[in-house]
Specification:
- By secondary structure, this protein is an alpha+beta fold.
- It contains eight helices and four strands, in the order ααβααβββαααα.
- A four-stranded mixed β-sheet has the order 1-4-3-2.
- β3 and β4 form a beta hairpin.
- The chain is globular and about 55 Å long.
- 14% of the residues are buried.
Protein backbone atom coordinates (compact mmCIF):
# COMPACT_ATOMS: atom_id res chain seq x y z
CA UNK A 1 0.00 0.00 0.00
CA UNK A 2 1.06 3.57 -0.51
CA UNK A 3 2.49 5.42 2.42
CA UNK A 4 0.15 7.71 4.31
CA UNK A 5 2.16 10.69 3.04
CA UNK A 6 1.74 9.69 -0.62
CA UNK A 7 -2.02 9.15 -0.20
CA UNK A 8 -2.45 12.40 1.71
CA UNK A 9 -0.60 14.37 -1.00
CA UNK A 10 -3.15 13.18 -3.55
CA UNK A 11 -6.32 13.66 -1.52
CA UNK A 12 -5.30 16.45 0.87
CA UNK A 13 -7.76 18.95 -0.59
CA UNK A 14 -10.71 16.56 -0.46
CA UNK A 15 -12.57 16.69 2.83
CA UNK A 16 -14.69 13.72 3.86
CA UNK A 17 -18.40 14.24 3.27
CA UNK A 18 -20.49 13.79 6.42
CA UNK A 19 -23.19 11.25 5.58
CA UNK A 20 -26.01 11.85 8.05
CA UNK A 21 -27.83 8.52 7.93
CA UNK A 22 -28.69 6.03 10.60
CA UNK A 23 -25.76 3.54 10.70
CA UNK A 24 -28.29 0.73 10.27
CA UNK A 25 -28.96 2.09 6.78
CA UNK A 26 -25.58 3.68 5.94
CA UNK A 27 -23.47 0.63 6.78
CA UNK A 28 -25.52 -2.07 5.03
CA UNK A 29 -23.42 -4.29 2.77
CA UNK A 30 -24.54 -6.51 -0.09
CA UNK A 31 -23.21 -9.12 -2.46
CA UNK A 32 -22.15 -8.34 -6.00
CA UNK A 33 -24.60 -10.98 -7.21
CA UNK A 34 -27.47 -9.09 -5.57
CA UNK A 35 -26.50 -5.74 -7.13
CA UNK A 36 -26.04 -7.41 -10.52
CA UNK A 37 -29.52 -8.97 -10.39
CA UNK A 38 -31.16 -5.85 -8.95
CA UNK A 39 -29.45 -3.11 -10.98
CA UNK A 40 -27.77 -4.98 -13.84
CA UNK A 41 -24.22 -5.45 -15.04
CA UNK A 42 -21.83 -8.34 -14.65
CA UNK A 43 -20.19 -9.26 -11.37
CA UNK A 44 -16.57 -8.57 -12.41
CA UNK A 45 -16.30 -5.25 -14.23
CA UNK A 46 -15.36 -1.98 -12.52
CA UNK A 47 -17.79 -0.15 -14.83
CA UNK A 48 -20.39 -2.79 -15.78
CA UNK A 49 -22.65 -2.31 -18.79
CA UNK A 50 -26.28 -2.34 -17.70
CA UNK A 51 -28.76 -4.49 -19.64
CA UNK A 52 -31.18 -2.36 -21.67
CA UNK A 53 -34.29 -3.76 -19.95
CA UNK A 54 -32.96 -2.90 -16.49
CA UNK A 55 -31.68 0.48 -17.64
CA UNK A 56 -35.16 1.25 -18.98
CA UNK A 57 -36.65 0.25 -15.62
CA UNK A 58 -34.41 2.25 -13.26
CA UNK A 59 -32.39 4.63 -15.48
CA UNK A 60 -29.10 4.07 -13.64
CA UNK A 61 -25.99 3.49 -15.74
CA UNK A 62 -23.32 4.96 -13.49
CA UNK A 63 -22.04 2.16 -11.26
CA UNK A 64 -18.36 1.91 -10.29
CA UNK A 65 -17.16 -1.11 -8.29
CA UNK A 66 -13.78 -0.81 -6.57
CA UNK A 67 -11.98 -3.84 -5.20
CA UNK A 68 -9.51 -3.14 -2.38
CA UNK A 69 -7.10 -5.78 -3.82
CA UNK A 70 -6.58 -3.54 -6.85
CA UNK A 71 -7.45 -0.18 -5.29
CA UNK A 72 -6.30 -0.37 -1.66
CA UNK A 73 -6.94 3.35 -1.14
CA UNK A 74 -10.52 3.44 -2.40
CA UNK A 75 -13.04 5.05 -0.03
CA UNK A 76 -13.84 2.54 2.71
CA UNK A 77 -16.81 4.24 4.37
CA UNK A 78 -19.60 6.45 3.02
CA UNK A 79 -18.34 9.95 2.27
CA UNK A 80 -14.62 9.15 2.60
CA UNK A 81 -12.24 10.41 -0.09
CA UNK A 82 -10.20 7.81 -1.92
CA UNK A 83 -7.99 6.87 -4.84
CA UNK A 84 -8.84 4.77 -7.89
CA UNK A 85 -5.85 3.38 -9.79
CA UNK A 86 -6.10 3.35 -13.58
CA UNK A 87 -3.30 2.71 -16.08
CA UNK A 88 -2.45 5.31 -18.69
CA UNK A 89 -4.82 8.16 -17.83
CA UNK A 90 -5.04 10.72 -20.63
CA UNK A 91 -4.54 14.08 -18.92
CA UNK A 92 -6.05 15.96 -21.86
CA UNK A 93 -9.38 14.12 -21.64
CA UNK A 94 -11.00 13.28 -18.31
CA UNK A 95 -10.94 9.50 -18.08
CA UNK A 96 -14.30 8.88 -16.44
CA UNK A 97 -16.31 12.13 -16.52
CA UNK A 98 -19.51 12.43 -14.56
CA UNK A 99 -20.66 11.25 -11.18
CA UNK A 100 -20.43 7.55 -10.28
CA UNK A 101 -22.32 5.41 -7.74
CA UNK A 102 -19.38 3.78 -5.99
CA UNK A 103 -19.47 0.43 -4.22
CA UNK A 104 -16.33 -0.93 -2.53
CA UNK A 105 -15.48 -4.57 -1.90
CA UNK A 106 -14.53 -4.72 1.77
CA UNK A 107 -14.04 -8.51 1.79
CA UNK A 108 -15.28 -11.54 -0.11
CA UNK A 109 -18.96 -11.16 -1.03
CA UNK A 110 -19.24 -7.92 0.97
CA UNK A 111 -19.78 -4.67 -0.96
CA UNK A 112 -20.54 -1.29 0.62
CA UNK A 113 -22.17 1.63 -1.17
CA UNK A 114 -19.99 4.64 -0.25
CA UNK A 115 -21.71 7.36 -2.26
CA UNK A 116 -21.61 9.24 -5.53
CA UNK A 117 -18.12 10.31 -6.60
CA UNK A 118 -16.49 12.33 -9.35
CA UNK A 119 -13.22 10.93 -10.73
CA UNK A 120 -10.47 13.53 -11.04
CA UNK A 121 -6.98 12.60 -12.29
CA UNK A 122 -4.19 12.79 -9.73
CA UNK A 123 -0.44 12.61 -10.22
CA UNK A 124 0.80 9.24 -11.49
CA UNK A 125 2.69 6.98 -9.11
CA UNK A 126 6.43 7.40 -9.17
CA UNK A 127 8.63 4.34 -9.67
CA UNK A 128 9.37 4.35 -5.94
CA UNK A 129 5.67 4.55 -5.06
CA UNK A 130 4.88 1.62 -7.36
CA UNK A 131 7.71 -0.42 -5.85
CA UNK A 132 6.33 0.29 -2.36
CA UNK A 133 3.01 -1.41 -3.20
CA UNK A 134 2.30 -4.72 -1.49
CA UNK A 135 3.30 -7.73 -3.64
CA UNK A 136 -0.37 -8.75 -3.85
CA UNK A 137 -1.34 -5.36 -5.34
CA UNK A 138 1.53 -5.39 -7.87
CA UNK A 139 0.82 -8.98 -8.90
CA UNK A 140 -2.91 -8.32 -9.32
CA UNK A 141 -2.24 -5.24 -11.45
CA UNK A 142 0.39 -7.02 -13.54
CA UNK A 143 -2.00 -9.89 -14.25
CA UNK A 144 -4.90 -7.58 -15.12
CA UNK A 145 -2.87 -5.24 -17.34
CA UNK A 146 -1.38 -8.16 -19.25
CA UNK A 147 -4.68 -9.91 -19.96
CA UNK A 148 -7.55 -7.41 -20.19
CA UNK A 149 -8.86 -5.49 -23.19
CA UNK A 150 -9.17 -2.24 -21.17
CA UNK A 151 -5.37 -2.21 -20.85
CA UNK A 152 -4.67 -2.64 -24.58
CA UNK A 153 -2.99 0.78 -24.87
CA UNK A 154 -0.71 0.00 -21.90
CA UNK A 155 0.14 -3.41 -23.40
CA UNK A 156 1.05 -1.73 -26.70
CA UNK A 157 3.26 0.82 -24.92
CA UNK A 158 5.11 -1.96 -23.07
CA UNK A 159 5.74 -4.00 -26.23
CA UNK A 160 6.89 -0.97 -28.22
CA UNK A 161 9.15 0.21 -25.37
CA UNK A 162 10.85 -3.21 -25.32
CA UNK A 163 11.26 -3.23 -29.11
CA UNK A 164 12.38 0.39 -29.49
CA UNK A 165 14.35 0.79 -26.25
CA UNK A 166 12.45 4.02 -25.54
CA UNK A 167 8.94 5.32 -25.01
CA UNK A 168 6.92 5.18 -28.24
CA UNK A 169 5.65 8.35 -29.88
CA UNK A 170 1.94 9.01 -30.38
CA UNK A 171 2.35 8.14 -34.07
CA UNK A 172 4.01 4.81 -33.25
CA UNK A 173 1.13 3.92 -30.92
CA UNK A 174 -1.30 4.25 -33.82
Amino acid sequence: MLSENVVNCRIALIAPYNVCLDPGIRDVTTSRTFTSKQWGGNTQSTFPSIRPDLLARHGLNDFMYLNLFINPHAPQWPGAPGLWFSPGVNWEARERPGIWRVLVRLKSNCWLYVGQYQCTPALSLTIEEWKSQAPRVKQTWSNKVSTHEWAREMQTKIVLHKRLGRNPTAEELQ
